[in-house]
Amino acid sequence: MLIAVLIGNLAYIRWACPYDLAPDEAHYWDWARHLDWCYYSKGPLVALLIRGSCELFGHTPFAVRLPAVICGTALLAGMAKLAHQISGDRRFSFFVICAALTLPGISATSVLMTIDAPFLACWAWATVCIQSALSGKALRYWCLAGLFVAIGLLAKLTMLAFPVSVALLLLQQKQHRTWNVLPFGLIAALGFIPMVVWNLRQDGVGLLHTLGHTGIQEPWPGLLGPLGFLGGQFGILLGVWFVAWLRAIWTLRPISHPGTALLWWLSVPLLVVCTVASLQTSGQPNWPAAAYISGFVLAMFWVRARWQSLTVRRAIVTVVALGIGCSLFLRWPGILRPTLARLTGEPTADRPAPVRQLDPTARLLGWNALASAVDSVRERIDTATGEEPLIASMTWTVPGELGFYCRGNPTVYSFGLALADRFSQYDLWRPNPVLDAQDFHGRTFVYVGEELPKGAFDRMELVQVVTPTADGVLVASWKIWICQGFRGFGPPMERGHPIRY
Fold this sequence. Notes:
two-stranded antiparallel ribbon, 21 helices, 7% strand, globular, disordered C terminus
């Protein structure tokens, strides 16, 4: 099954994937062109994996997404191994894989190159190593678990929850004097080194960004925060799996079921922390994603124990069918896009691509068409003036896309810091037009976005509105401007300042 999944996903990203790179994927690809100890919002692992793949296979969507396919298969292999370790039943681990494959989140993570792909794979195999270590095996499993935690930290700081959960497990089982924990902790701490080095060089801007996710600068949302958060988890797990997980959390408590204690401790604390955090900030639905790994296996144990119940069987069959349908839509959204477009109504000036309200996959389309239009404008300026123009965009989500798809993979800048967009990695790379205006004075830019404040350029001309379609549906709308005689923007607006994350 794992080999079939690997081959199927490789074939999909090579020949059948209808998507351009997602903005996050293109952003991380741009990071891979500027290797560093760390980056503004994430560790270096995702950039290293993309860089290695692109060195082998070129700067293609296949190369960018190849590490996601490998990490997705490693995640499933880790879940299967974990299920077999605890149950001793290979058939059970096989059914865990089959059920996990119907989760839309697993399907997406296995083909889109985000930080979650390597992070979740590291979490799964760290769990496998801890289970082996707790079974009385050699010290090497503690060391391997520490290594996976260290690598996972290079992808996502949420990996910090792993050693904390393990510590809680050892305290509950009264094994807190296990000296093997020491090398585990020391090796895991190595994952902090790149982050510390980079933040010392950048005045702690990455840490400020992380603190910003806590919502300490936002108004208190009250009880609606946890309700919205838990509702999001209910939706991500297609309802039935979330209910099964909650039932397993209650019925398979560590005190009465020590065999599944590791699964419990590596899922419940993270879910609780994220739920409590939602009292202050809405956060992102994927924050507790790591808890789904052991949590899903725990839920499968609960389902197996109650498989004789007709209600349970019907619920699982229903959610599996629903999951397959959702996963097929995510892989080939053209199946339903025309129907969704009819539901959202006709495009207007205020809503040029209304289908995006119901079809999130539309945000992964049209980027190649935009880049082709930008290349045409660049060529026209070069022919007329003999000077190749620079390229810039209004927000941080566009430069990576244009850098990837435009001819020659040019450097693309972001004006976001001057336009109240959030701070990003583009504002740290120097020189850039917002913070180093003198280095770009008088230059001509091809700019993608809304009209800029007066005074930034001598002259601005709207030359094209790009409206790409897919399956006969308008999926995006971008304005392309020729901006001549760059002057600068003045001081960055407050919202874009590093302190405001």
